[in-house]
Amino acid sequence: MIETSVQKEQTSFRVTTAASNSIKVFKLLTQLIVSPGLNISEFERIKGETLDYLKEQFPREDQEELGKAALDLAIYGKGHPYAHPVAGLSADVQTITHEEAVAFYKKYFTQKRIIVAAAGRVTDELKRAMLELEAALPAGDSSSTKIPPAPVNKGISVTIVEGPFDGTGVHLGHALPINRRDERFAQLVLAANGFGKHRSFVGRLMHVVREVRGLNYGTYSYVEDFPYGGRLLTEPLQVARQIQAFTVWGRPTPHENGCFLTRQIFRELQSLKTQGLTTEEFTRTKSHLQGALPILGSPLERRLGYAVDSVFYGTPSNYLAELVTRLSRASNEAVKNTIQKYIDTDNLHLVLVTKNAEALKVRLKEKECTIQYAPGIDKSESIKTEDREIAAFPIAIKEERIRIVRSDQLF
């Protein structure tokens, strides 16, 4: 089966096959890329399905990805190439024509933009077929697109997305001025994993939010885009972006604890900013990454995927090995300095996805919002004391920076 993936800056076609079938399969892949059908009836079918997804499914059934898309909109601003779901905006999809889709294909599926890659048993015949695929495309006039920077944000902006959801999700973050090409980015990777590694108890947030308080399934932090995190355990490939963002994702909690979860995340983030990782967190995370990263890239298809992404970023082809080397040189003091330089707790965007936006807005403005444990749950005195501190933790939110929008009107 040929897998396809469309993201903000990369479209990829992937297939894994037995070496004995490689030429036959690659010819099918070549036909798909060089001579796609682009049938008008298929175009209209896909257009209709996309509109249904954007108008009905996405705003009502995918709370977590909706929150991430809303955070992208908040960070990058309306009109930015990142400020919409991959499927597009419903108004744009509604008006797009078959001719425009064909013109898009002709403009961007070119020799200067395509990367043809293979791994495993690569014969001379397959190499020739790869070169022939590239040669069959038009030359094109550019190898990349310049992505504009995120607009400058002062203070904390709040977007409350209201929809038919069973819990309240929390998303916050801001754009970063560096990506994995920068030597210091490895230190941000370590910091994000130590603070909130995806789907893992290595991170601090999983311990204090889920393990100690049972507020949600997980709370994670990132310095690179991580779409479909609710379904994936490991980072996806071919989702590269020129501009990355530091983000925190708090998975849905019962509505009565939405405000408390928000304050807890802000409190932990402030601690990370001022104090960095503890010595134990730094040592544990560094050791974990040095052991886990080589395994992450061990499957053949993932090694190939990282190599393709390295072309995009202009980094060494074995990015994971380079990352391990950079991490080996990192000290906790250096990581702390990088956190303080690149993570901004005063100027960021907060997105809350909930059922009753006005009620949550009122709670955010109150001096305290206490945690509500399930009946019969009791905590130690130290946890109760910390809960009271979290409940009263101040967030500098101004009334004029709060925006409420219905989920079905967002995109």
- Using the CA coordinates, give the radius of gyration: 23 Å
CATH architecture of the largest domain: 2-Layer Sandwich
Helix content: 40-55%
Please state roughly what percent of the residues sit in beta strands, choosing from under 5%, 5-15%, 15-25%, 25-35%, 35-45% or over 45%.
5-15%
CATH class of the largest domain: Alpha Beta
CATH T-level topology of the largest domain:
Cytochrome Bc1 Complex, Chain A, domain 1
Computed structural class: alpha/beta
Short description:
It contains 15 helices and eight strands.
Protein model, in words:
By secondary structure, the protein is α/β, with parallel strands linked by helices. It has two domains: 3-136, Metalloenzyme, LuxS/M16 peptidase-like (Cytochrome Bc1 Complex, Chain A, domain 1); 156-409, Cytochrome Bc1 Complex, Chain A, domain 1 (2-Layer Sandwich). 46% of the residues lie in helices and 12% in strands. The strands form two sheets. The protein has a six-stranded mixed sheet with strand order 5-6-4-7-3-8, with helices on both faces. β1 and β2 (11-14) form a beta hairpin. α1 packs parallel to α6 (124-136), α7 packs across α13 and α10 (279-296) packs antiparallel against α12 (319-328). The chain starts with a strand and ends in a 5-residue tail after the last strand. The model has no long low-confidence stretch (mean pLDDT 97).
